[in-house]
Amino acid sequence: MSLTFRNYSVMDRLKHLLDQIDHRGYKAYKQIQGDYQFPDFLLRIDHVQGDPFADPSRCRIFINSDTIKLDQGLYANRIRCVALEDYLGRSFATAIQQHVKGRRGSGKSGEMEIVSYGQQVLERNAVLVREGAVELRIQLALPADGRSVNAQQAKVMLFDELVNVVRAILHSLQDDSDSLQRHVDSVEDQQFLRKQLASKGLLAFVADGAILPRVSGIDDRPLDRAVPFCAPDSLSVELDRLHAEPLRGLGIAKGITLIVGGGYHGKSTLLHAIERGVYDHIPGDGREGVVTDPGAFKIRAEDGRAITGVDISPFINNLPQGKDTRRFSTQNASGSTSQAANIIEALASGAKTLLIDEDTSATNFMIRDERMQALVAKDKEPITPLVQRIQDLYKNNGISVVLVMGGSGDYFGVADAVIMMDNYIPKDVTNTAKALAQAAVPQKVAKMDIQAHIRVPRPRCLSAELHQGKDKIQTFGTRTLRYGRQEVELSRVEQLVDAAQLRAIGYLIRHFGEHFSQQKVDLVEGLAMALDEVESHGLDQITPFIVGTLAMPRIQELVAVVNRMRGLELNDLP
To answer: Would you say the pTM of this structure is higher than 0.85?
Structure first.
């Protein structure tokens, strides 16, 4: 992306154009599309909105490598480059808050924004670094009076505020280079920690000193004055880092791990940190030392979700009226059928670690005590509860489970490790739990048979077309995807952490439908092919025009979204 700016229009031409269209109809702004050279950067106006109430204009800023002067070590590999791009995007967002006035006129006039950033470091297309040159993708809401051009405010926005924002970034890189270095090194360290898990037989690691509690359910920042995490000696391990001293912490081994404890003592908080450990976090988040198997998936009950052609028979069979559970479909799943489907779908997507919290699970899917078994005969109960399947999951299928339980000791006898949270401090109570479980008589059930049934989607159900010739892909946070004529409810897909991921998923589904579905491949296989293409060639492969609002999703969430589409249709297979 090395650029020379000699042949581009100077910024004075932009001033002249703005003066010419002042007070004309808003569509006159279309005339300023193009490239304009500023002292420190090139501004490319790719698309101008047609109305002050429409989506903002799409622009790009190119900063030459000679101007920004980034040390080559900061982008020496893909991990470091992603971290560098993340840092630059956050810096731009901060500079906007400091130097841009914001709304001034009709609609969103005067607003300038880059994609929003959370606590996780994700691969995005908002900022791209290539050979030391930088491309930033932003949205500008060009100022209007009513539905007329306000050129004077547009000049303030472009020639004062935007220039000051870019200069602020350049100065901050020079004045606080240590912060940038820490950011990039921290992300690379987290990746290095995660890569050590498999070789040490671990599915997760939680470092001593980690801050796990969050401000609230809607604020993912660390809670002030929270109790720092400290692993018990019996479960502690040490992992190396590339840029700092080794870390001691809790090592959660592959197998069945139970997290127990009283209410409000930190059970779900620990599980939540583990589920977010599939992502890297910014320095100061408190979870930089929490890393998890990258394919781990959070399982929960999801009443009312759609299920299409999923084999839930390992957990649910012999339903009334002879309903087929080997290719089970419903538009209104129960808690138990949804939880069974969520497990089977997660395994099909490649997950080898399942994370489950009793509080968000269907009780009859989790346990079935002796008194209930005495009252309801086995041949009248179609559900084989997880407690009877969980050891089979690991021993015969290699699937580990981390399970939070606060109200039942039924899992003591099947757990490999039991961790008790006491005022947010973990304690190893495995031996005590095993002793308590000795009196229980284990129930024998048939061996679990998990088969990967091929599910081939019909291409027509993957169309994003809303009206003839017009597609619709719209997101509402991480809760809902509006895809063509469908609305997909996703509030209970808990590891979908950023709206930019969901937006990318929408475009990936369309890309899959247009380029892979005609091959009649299995749903998961085809989605994996589409995702591999994007990971190799970039997120720009899946959009009809350049945007800067996408982030790379995991295959698990991509598959989860398609599985929840109520319009999903499968080809009939023998």
So the answer is: yes
Out of 122, 142, 175, a domain closes at 175
Q: What is the DSSP letter of 331?
A: S
- Residue pLDDT, tens place only, 247-275: 999 999 999 999 999 998 999 999 999 99
Q: Which of 429, 342, 447, 439 is CA-nearest to residue 388? A: 447
Looking at the fold, whether 442 and 464 belong to one and the same domain comes out as no
**8-state DSSP, 103:** -
In a domain, 278, yes or no: yes
DSSP state of 36: E
3-class state of residue 59 by DSSP: strand
The mean pLDDT value of the chain amounts to 93
Domain presence at residue 185: no
| Reported confidence tier of residue 80, pLDDT bands at 50, 70, 90 | very high
From residue 429, how far is each of 19, 126, 257, 291 by CA, in Å? 75, 47, 11, 23
Inside any domain, residue 3: no
Query: Is the Cβ–Cβ distance between 428 and 237 less than 8 Å?
Result: no
Q: Which of left, alpha, beta for 461 (phi over 0: left; psi -120 to 50: alpha)? A: alpha
Answer yes or no: are the C-beta atoms of 87 and 183 closer than 8 Å: yes
Distant-in-sequence, close-in-space partners of 181: CB < 8 Å, separation ≥ 6:
74
As given in the structure block, the two tokens for residue 162 are 């935007």
Specify the DSSP class assigned to residue 414: G
pLDDT digits 0-9 by tens, 279-292: 999 999 999 999 99
Spatial distance between the Cα atoms of 415 and 460, rounded to a whole number of angstroms: 45
Range of the domain at 490: 459-563
Per-residue pLDDT, 12:
87
